[in-house]
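[Automated response] Your request has been received and processed.

Submitted sequence:
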Amino acid sequence: MMRKRILGAVLFVLAAIIFTACGGRINEPDIELRDFDVQLRDEPEPAELITADLLSIHFIDVGEGDAILIIQGDYAMLVDGGPTDMGTTVFSYIRNQGVVQLEYVVATHPFADHVGGLPDVLRRMAVRNVLLPMVYHDTAAFNNFLFAVEDSYADVFVPFAGHVFTLGDAEITILSPNPTDTWDNRANYSIVMRMEFGSTSFLLMGDAMREVEANLLDSTANLSADVLKVARHGASSATTSGFLDAVNPSIAVISASGDNGFLSQEVLRRLANADIHTFRTDLHGNIVITSDGTTLGVMVDR
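Generated structure:
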């Protein structure tokens, strides 16, 4: 009964934030994202990936789901945490990189294959800020995530298109959602982020589908990116030809399982026809992309 009351309080706060941003129709949502001094272990592993001069993006193999660890200098950020049974795997991977504190945890949207593993991380690591989607989903996985957010005492934000924050020397811009968005599918409320580090760029799409892609194509947002995290695990409901042309990546990453029911041969053909080097967690395991601000490197487990 007590936990139900707590969940109700969390949902009330989330609803209030969304109401302020949406129902209040304010022009500039009052969300301030702050930087903190995050310290890493003295001897991180692998040491060559964690230096002040490099950005590293780790696409963790969590099967059918997403979990992306981003490290720049002394700052680290986790985007999604995979399904519930992968929480310990994600936590162990983060600690093995020498990370002891996360500047940001981002739940791109409330589906279990993205938020299910986050409670393991939130309850076992120090987390400064949590970025929530602007939509609620009444499932055990999302409710457990909200409980863990409350227990973490992290600052909570609901970001919208136009918000900009930094992770060390990397700059991250929120491209979607917009406060006025109304979608039937909760996946379209995914927090979409474009990150710049030096002259290199990265686009993380969450599970946003073709409807969001169309909105982004109609916007003034800069969509070009060297690396594209393919939306919705390579499903045909996303990664349209027009959107792929606008992004024009040299590298694409798909987070998928070996028996993935989403992965579309049509999307794979589009990527191949565009001469995009495509890496998949079901084939390559953990995928690590590094940038020195000018050039990119790729490491895979297998």
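Summary generated for your ticket: Confidence is low (pLDDT under 50) at residues 15-51. The longest strand covers residues 170-176.
If you did not submit this request, please reply to this message.
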